[in-house]
Amino acid sequence: MNLPILTAVLLGLVLTPALADYHQQTDISKKISIGGGYQIMTINRKWLVASIEQKTTHGSWKTIWNYDTGFMATKVLPEKACYISIMNRTEMPSFDALPQLAAHIRNHQRSPTKEITFTLVKKIIRDLESYGPDTFSMCIGLTTYVAYEVHGPQFNLGSCIKLDVLQYLALTYCHNNNYV
After folding, report:
1. Cα–Cα dist 58/51, whole Å
2. Among 54, 63, 82, 122, which residue has the least CB neighbours within 10 Å?
3. At 14, which helix (H) or strand (E)?
4. What is the C-alpha separation between 112 and 7, in angstroms, rounded?
5. What is the pLDDT of residue 34?
6. Residue 84 contacts residue 72 (beta carbons within 8 Å)
7. Whole-angstrom Cα distance, residue 168 to residue 171?
8. pTM for the complete prediction?
9. Mean pLDDT value across residues 102-113
10. pLDDT (tens digit, 9 = 90+) per residue, 40-60?
């Protein structure tokens, strides 16, 4: 009679860490309402990848942050373009802080607390797959630009598009009049 109870207890002790590890590696998804639209954040803990997608009446975009490779890719639908750049880890939220950041967003418009500005260079990327399967599937077939971070006042930047990510970080992509 005690054997089934002992077996159940031992099985529970063995499975608890395995199930906890499985839970930590699964995806987390959160829909956030933001000024006339919404953003969907998806986190893959196993691959250290976060994607944030915005759908609004003003236009849609999606950005993928690969904390493992250190690259980020952004698809802007109105421009039918994809931008690939190196992540600035000092300006971007840490991977572990993303769920908490999304939880604290309120349904009112406020300006992001940080901004990263990029200049775009139309450059052929020969191996889009090297940026990861998420980036490859998002950017394949689109005009792809390499985005370089710029600092300080930039007087030669052309038209820009500013993306508000989770009311925390503004990603500003500018067409450089000299290169694109």
Report:
1. 20
2. 122
3. helix 2-25
4. 54
5. 67
6. yes
7. 10
8. 0.79
9. 71
10. 999 999 999 999 999 887 779
